[in-house]
Structures are given as structure tokens and as C-alpha cells.
Amino acid sequence: MIPGSSQPSGTTATQSLPKPTSDAAVADRGAAAIVSGALTTAVGAAGIAVGIAALGGSTAVGHVDWLFPLVGVDWRLTGLGGFFALLTGAVALAAGCYTVGYARAERIGRFPLAMLPLFAAALVAVPLAGSVPTFLLAWELMAATSTVLVLADHRRAAVRVAGLQYAVLTHLSYAAILVGLLLLAAVAKTADLGALTGAAASLPAGTRTVVFLACLIGFGTKAGLVPLHAWLPRAHPEAPSPVSALMSAAMVAMGCYGVLLVAVGILGPGPRWWGLLVLLVGIGSAVFGVLHASVTSDLKRLLAYSTTENMGLVMIAVGAAMVLAGSDRPDIAAIAITAALIHLCTHAAFKTLAFLAAGSVLVATGLRDLDRLGGLARPMPATTIGFGIAGLGAAGLPVGAGFVSEWLLLQSLIHYPRGADTVMALVIPLAMGAVALAIGLGVMTMVKAFGVGFLARARSPEAMRAREAPPTMLAGMGIAALACLILGLAPGLLNPAVRAAAADLPFAAVPIGAAMLRLPEGLGSIAPGLLALALVVAIALATVLVRRPTQSRPVERALWACGADTLSPRMQYTATSYAQPLQRVFDPILQPETELRVGTAPQSRYVIQQASYRSRAQDAIERRMYLPVVQGVRTLSSWVRRAHTGSVQLYLAMGGAGLLATLLITR
Amino acid sequence: MQPPAGVRGSLQLRHVDAGSCNGCEIEIASAFGPVYDAERYGARLVASPRHADALLVTGVVTRNMEQPLRNTRDAVPEPRLVIAVGDCARNCGVFARGYGVAGSVRDVIGTDVEVPGCPPSPDQIVAALRSVTGR
Questions:
Q1: Staple partner for B76: which of A13, A160, A532, B80, CB 3.0–4.6 Å?
Q2: What's the pTM value of the predicted model, to 2 decimals?
Q3: Are B71 and A557 inside 8 Å of each other by CB?
Q4: Is the ipTM of this complex over 0.90?
Q5: Choosing among B50, B64, B71, which should be mutated to test the A contact, i.e. which has the most A CBs within 10 A?
Q6: Are residues A123 and A223 in the same domain?
């Protein structure tokens, strides 16, 4: 987004003004940004408070009749709902702070700013819904407000395409959820989510399966799971960055909440293939997401694909737990469900931070393309440190936020009971391999994003002119960074929250000690806090030992540039070149579109005057699965169009015939 | 002559082709091959001037290679030596007064040891290296 290209999208009068950046307009927008940010922060704080109350054991329920006609609004506090309210509230808190500075710098219009607190409120409301109509209402509010927010910068064509795709997929997913939940409520003869849990067990198996599949499709789309993920890598990058953070950290978690609530909680232990299906979807999402994240060079797109990867990891854990539900190994299921819940939390923390840092880069340089960034560590130290913390978390390395949950996930798979179950004996090693591959490539992805994007030398004049973000944006990033550090070093603090959330599911949770994390029955143990301490001591020792006074002083010389006079920024690794070997290895999956143009001299075709290389990793699933559907709808509508001749007489005749047919049938 | 590093039998060489016809390169390859085996006298080819004690320069210095040759010389830690291999490196040889020639190695960065011949035989190269390694 080039500063100055986006104009305020308030009223048409404002748009037709030749200079929209008059002082009054700027001051007005500043006030709007402050109000919107403050409201979002307040919603976040309220979400945290309600979440903590629910996790503390409060099971209050309530009914507000006047808020919505006919059915009213029901709310209830549960451990699981409180967990997700706390999570989304924390994300909204950080994003709200950040919005104050971001909206002013990026000139976000008044209408999207007004939608932001509403979106945050919808996110907090979904896990607090007490009945099916309220849940659907909050869900639709979440979908509608987020669509508006994706379209905030609607003057760019890419944003409009992303917004359209998002609107279509999010409402298809809504339709699936609607069918699933209404069928469930109709057959069980209750719309109360608490009462449904008990009633669902006596439903016929066919109904349960239909509800499960509809809900998996609906919630899976929201969670960005393959193959229904296509909206995610388009919509998240095009939305304003605090919105990206809310969508990528909190909204996709709502998809997981839906799966946990309906497929695991309400429908209870189902047939084995339910868990197996969730597990396989998780494997596909994790691998597909991380592969695309590792080859893309758009910073926000990379983070969006990483979201698909992380939701895949969560689904692997949920699937493993679902298969084990009701079996004789509840301890392994407990490890898996603990891994899923902690990973949702840590993913929310590091993804919020990463998107906020990416937003700071966008404000400072107007760039998302890693190949043109670089050299941001000196002009933007706080943002760089923030992205570093987020990257460490996303890479799943010790001390980083994502380490404990990924370790727990691998432990649950390694210690998976080896029974006579042939299918699981095949699937579990596959899942282990997928998790290992996802973590390994995740490290590479984050090394690329951090190393190419922030370190070394600036690759473009825009990156050279970068300046640090304003204090409100740094405050938002600071909140998220603090959450990342706390989750990475002392995951034991999550203990009560995870236990309360798991209590609503047919699982227990593994207690996480403050310093030492011990799995039940001595299956393994780890101490993230002690690891961090050891790392700090080792770094301090190494620093002291290296700084020992020596007799010979080092001589400073110019950097060896292979004989050339100077090193230019163009000689650096780029994101594309860093990912090239990987792109080659995974060519059949990624199916990149590469184009090499060589311009030769007119005198001889052996003298090359210029060469240009372009490579773009296309989403193969999008092309193979979505385009045929779109094409089919087009063909169908072209047939329908033949009836639309524009003749009023024909339309009247058709109306008359329709009425006649209706009367005949309903006679 | 003592090896620059001051240790007998240890000479790390960085080879620079400043504009050679590749005749000298073939002879250098033979000198370090199994038949003549210059490494048994302590001379060794390395991959970067940063690791080297001495430069082994072949060919006439072309205009394109003049500055890179100077940069490479500067990249070798001191004390350092320059060993010119072949007639071109010594006095431009058959390419003297060519349009792309900046001068001989002796003119551009100065030499400490010179090996005559067009090309010099591996014998001569090994002998010149032994005069430096001291073995």
C-alpha cells in the first residue's frame, strides 16, 4: 500500500474532494482511530475478564430477550468458552492498542474503523453463546464485520478479489454450520448448547454423521483447513494488519472452537473415522500450509499460510485425541488435547505479534515483498525484536512460544498406544512425519522471513527510508511480545485455563508444572524455563570468555567481495533464492509458474543483454478444485440467462405460469 | 626465502587467473597432481585469499582484472608474497601491447618470485614453490 493511494472511504463527499488530506480530515481520522482502538481494547479487556471468570468456575447463564426478536440472546459461561473468550480478548487488546497508530498512518476509513470493535465483540461473543440461534447470530456478525474489514482498502483490485472470495467462502461455511446446527437442534428438540450435550448421545447415527460432516466443513473453512483454505492466504494479507492479527490469531481459533464444541463436546465420542478424518485433514493442512509459507515471498501471505499450518497441527492433536476418546488410554488423549489447547494459545500470541510487526513494516516502507525489504534491524529495532520473538515462537524452537505445544503434540504421537489397529499404526507415523516436516520447514520459513526481511542490507529505497513505528503500535506489539515470552518460558501459567477448558470435553488435561513439565507415568519431561536459563547463562559465559583481554588487536579490513570493489544489496540472498531449492524439491505439490525471458543482442544470440525471471507458487488446490466449480456455475448461469431475454411479456408469462404451477401443486 | 607465515614447509596459495590462456593453469594442475605432487613440499592451494599466504598469479593482467587483482592482493593477510607464473605474468609475453592488456603482474602489484616459461613446466613451478617453502 503506497501512502497516499488509499483515500478515506467515509462519505461520497469526502471522496470527491480533490485533496482528502486536509487538516480537518486528518484530525477527524485521528479521533476516529483513537475511539475505534480504545473501544476494541475495551472489548478485549472485557473478553479477558469474562474469560477469567468462566475459567474460574463460574457457570452463569443468561437470557436477553429484547436484543434479538423472537428468540432473544442466550449466553452462558463454560470453561471451554471462557478459554476462547480469554484468547480472543487478549488478541483484541493488543490489536486495539495497535490500531490507534496504524489507522492514522494507513488512513483507514471511518466505516471499517467502526466495524473493528464490532468484529472484536463478535469474536468474544461466539464462545459465550448459550444457544444455537445466538451462536449463529454471533458467528454471522463475525463473518459480516470481518468481510467489511477485509475490504477496507477496496480501491485496489487485489483487495476486491480477496474480499469477494472471502465473502463467498465464509458464507458457504456459514450455510454448512447452519444446516448442521439446525438439524442437531431440530432432532434433539432443544436449542440450548448445554442441554444439547446430553441429548446428542441418543440421536440416530445417520443424523450425528451429517451434523459432524456439516460442522467440520463449516468450521474447517473458518479455521483455514485444506482444502477449504483458499480464502485465507488472500484475505489475511489484504486486510489491514490489526485485522489480519484478529483474523489469523482469533477468528481461525473460532473454527477450532466450533470443532471442539460440536464434534468433540456435543456429539461426544463418535466412530473412529471421525477422529481419523480430522487427523488426516490436519496432516494435509500442516504440510500444505508450511510448504506454501516456505516458498512465498510476501510477508503477510507467508504468515497467512503459516496459520493454515498451525491450525493443521491443532487438528492433528484434536484428531488423535478424538480417536482415543473412550479408549483405555485417556492419558495419551489428555496429552494430545493439552497440546491442541496450548498451541491455540501460543499460536494466537505469536501470530498476533507477527502480523502486527508486519504491519509496522508495511507502514514504514509500504512493502510486503520480502525480496525488496531488508536492513530494518537498525532503523526499526523494536519491530525487529518483536518479529524475532514471533518467529522464534512460530519456528517451535525452545524458549519460543510454540515449543511446548509442539513438543506435547509429538509426545502424544510418539507414545500413541500400539494396538492391533492397523489403520492407526499407519496413520500415526504419517502424522509424526508431517509434524516433523512442518516444524522443520517452519524453522526455515521463519529464518527466511526474519533474515531476509529484517537483517542484512536494505534491498530497495523504500526499505532504506524506514522509520520505527509510533508508540501506540509498539505498545500493541509489546503486549503480544510479553504474552509470547510468558507462554514460552512459563507455560505452567496456562494450567488452570487448560484444565477448565478440557473439563468441558470428554478429556482430562495434563498438568504443566511451573518449572518442569512432566508427562504422566514418566513418559517424558521438559523444563522450558530451565532451558531458557541455561541458554542465558551459556550466552553470558561465552560473552565473558570471548571478551578476555588479548595482546593482539584485530585489524579491520574491507569485506572480501570476491575481487569486486563493493558488495551491493543485490548480491544478498533473497527470499526467492532462499526458497528455490525447496521449490524445486516440492515442485509436484507447489506447481510453480516460472517464466524466464532472455533478451539477446541483435548481433548475436549468444550475447545476452537482459534476463528476467519470474516465479510464482500457485495454489494447486485452488486451481484444481475451485476454478472448475466457478466454471460450472458460469456455464449453468449462461443457460439460465437464455430465459432472461428482457421481454416484459415473457417475464409476466413466466410469473403467471409459476403461480399456476404453485396453485396446482398446493391444491 | 622463508615462507611468509614463518613456518618452514607451510605455504597456502591462492591462484588468480589475471588473463591467462589457461596454459599455465594446466601446468599448475600438473604440478599439484599425483606425478609432481607439490603438496609434499608444503605448498597447498586454498579457496580464498583470506586463507592464503601468497598469490599464484598467471597470465597477463587484463583491464577487467586489474582492480580485482589489486583487491585480491589486499585481501591476503600480511606478510604476503606474489608468485608470478609464466612469461605473460612476468612481462606480458606474446600478449604485450594487446588492446585489453593493462600490464604484467610485475607492473600492477609487483612480484616476489617469478617462474619463466610459456608455459613453465611443472618442474619449474615446483622448484619455485620449494624456494619459498624451504623444503
A1: B80
A2: 0.85
A3: no
A4: no
A5: B71
A6: yes
